């Protein structure tokens, strides 16, 4: 099959990165003094996403707590991720550079939870046992639109407090009411937990379209309800996206839990695949081909069901235990369905074009991205580029050239 020529294109999103994010965080922490008893055990909650500067930020919080006389420890707050095991979640943190050695503090983990209350409909509210038994909890998380629902609280501090620190049992319970149920449960659970658990601070992070830290605010618990929805609006405005429309085939080089909770960000794909949730109108992608899993996803391929075709090398890297633990917790089983498998990258791309019965594949509208987080530089096929070449936020940075493949069919 004759594939179209491709060209590298830069998407010119406005940058708002902080010049020295670590300095900003330290200033924010100094502006929010803590009164702690000597030797207080403080849990610093760490999540499972690939957040910019996360290891340095976590270490800065640990050091700040030590200076205040506390004994901090790092606690995974990631629901059922890491295979829903304490050891697996420690491994996820380690992949981000968060270890006892790098933090200068212990990393402790448990899946055991304690019920601290219930909602009016008798839904129990759970929280991680180590967090509840600590003398204080500090959350560190990125505020970002969620990939499965819409509400005033999506991915952020309140979700980490409820779903993340709910561990496997709490996260499973929270997802039983479906995607839209999360929009209701997260603030309701959060209100109970904030009353029952020793939450001290939340470090709220907002990133720019280039995945760089654009804003840092240290919030006290009483500020979560009012300030986080405002930060979510800003995060949504900052999101990178595909600026072209009407794509025959979207090639995604890698997916993973470090990239998005669904492996690939549904806001970028324009594909939700959830009952009762409206499919986005943009960018309009007919077929999605996903080539590989990221190393930091540790075999968790949750979200592969969003693709139409995957490669044999992606399939071979799947840890089904970790993937299914995640899918069962979310209840969105279709997102863990195995798509059509093709032996090589080239065969996968050709199959996606063949199934659309495109008369001349050389004229196909193809976009290629590294992953759904890294959208600063993408590749467009000749026909797609010529349609959008006058877009004010697109800049061609390479000549038109054929897609190249290794002898084993892997896309170079």
In brief:
By secondary structure, the chain is of the alpha/beta class. It contains 14 helices and 15 strands.
Can you walk through the features of this model?
By secondary structure, the protein is an alpha/beta fold. The chain is built from 14 helices and 15 strands. It folds into 2 domains: 6-13 and 241-396, no CATH class; 32-238, LarA, N-terminal domain (Rossmann fold). It has helices spanning 21-30, 54-67, 86-95, 100-103, 129-133, 157-164, 167-174, 178-196, 224-238, 266-269, 312-316, 320-330, 345-354, 382-388, and strands at residues 6-11, 41-46, 71-76, 113-118, 124-128, 136-142, 199-207, 213-219, 247-252, 285-290, 309-311, 340-342, 366-369, 377-381, 394-396. The strands form 3 sheets. Strands 12-11-10-9-13-14-1-15 form an 8-stranded mixed sheet. Helix 1 packs parallel to helix 2. The model has no long low-confidence stretch (mean pLDDT 94).
What brief labels describe this structure?
2 domains, 14 helices, eight-stranded mixed β-sheet, 412 residues
Intertermini distance: 17 Å
In terms of quaternary structure, what is this?
single chain
Number of helices: 14
Shape: globular
Walk me through the topology.
Elements: E1 6-11, H1 21-30, E2 41-46, H2 54-67, E3 71-76, H3 86-95, H4 100-103, E4 113-118, E5 124-128, H5 129-133, E6 136-142, H6 157-164, H7 167-174, H8 178-196, E7 199-207, E8 213-219, H9 224-238, E9 247-252, H10 266-269, E10 285-290, E11 309-311, H11 312-316, H12 320-330, E12 340-342, H13 345-354, E13 366-369, E14 377-381, H14 382-388, E15 394-396
């Amino acid at each position: 099959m004759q594939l179209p020529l491709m060209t590298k294109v830069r998407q010119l999103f406005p940058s708002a990165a902080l010049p020295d994010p670590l300095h900003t965080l330290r200033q924010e922490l100094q502006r929010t003094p803590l009164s702690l008893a000597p030797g207080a055990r403080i849990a610093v909650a760490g999540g499972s996403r690939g957040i910019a500067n996360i290891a340095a930020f976590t270490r800065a919080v640990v050091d700040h707590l030590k200076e205040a006389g506390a004994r901090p420890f790092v606690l995974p707050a990631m629901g059922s991720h890491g295979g829903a095991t304490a050891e697996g979640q420690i491994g996820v943190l380690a992949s981000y550079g968060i270890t006892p050695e790098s933090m200068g503090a212990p990393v402790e983990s448990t899946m055991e939870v304690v019920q601290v209350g219930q909602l009016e409909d008798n839904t129990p509210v759970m929280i991680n046992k180590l967090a509840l038994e600590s003398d204080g909890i500090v959350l560190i998380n990125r505020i970002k639109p969620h990939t499965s629902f819409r509400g005033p609280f999506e991915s952020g501090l309140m979700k980490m407090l409820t779903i993340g620190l709910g561990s496997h049992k709490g996260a499973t319970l929270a997802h039983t009411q479906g995607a839209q149920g999360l929009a209701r449960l997260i603030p309701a659970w959060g209100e109970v937990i904030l009353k029952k658990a020793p939450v001290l601070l939340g470090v709220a992070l907002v990133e720019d379209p280039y995945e760089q830290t654009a804003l840092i605010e240290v919030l006290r618990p009483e500020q979560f309800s009012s300030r986080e929805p405002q930060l979510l609006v800003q995060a949504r405005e900052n999101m990178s996206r595909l600026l072209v429309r009407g794509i025959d085939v979207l090639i995604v080089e890698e997916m993973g839990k470090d990239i998005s909770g669904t492996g690939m960000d549904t806001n970028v794909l324009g594909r939700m695949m959830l009952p009762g949730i409206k499919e986005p109108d943009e960018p309009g992608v007919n077929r999605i081909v996903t080539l590989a899993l990221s190393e930091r996803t540790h075999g968790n391929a949750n979200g592969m069901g969003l693709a139409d075709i995957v490669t044999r090398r992606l399939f071979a890297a799947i840890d089904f235990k970790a993937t299914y633990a995640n899918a069962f917790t979310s209840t969105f089983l279709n997102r863990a369905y195995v798509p059509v498998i093709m032996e090589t990258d080239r065969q996968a791309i050709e199959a996606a074009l063949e199934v659309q019965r495109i008369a001349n594949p050389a004229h196909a509208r193809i976009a290629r991205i590294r992953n759904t987080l890294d959208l600063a530089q993408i590749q467009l096929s000749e026909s797609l580029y010529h349609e959008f070449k006058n877009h004010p936020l697109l800049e061609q940075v390479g000549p038109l050239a054929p897609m190249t493949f290794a002898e084993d069919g892997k896309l170079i």
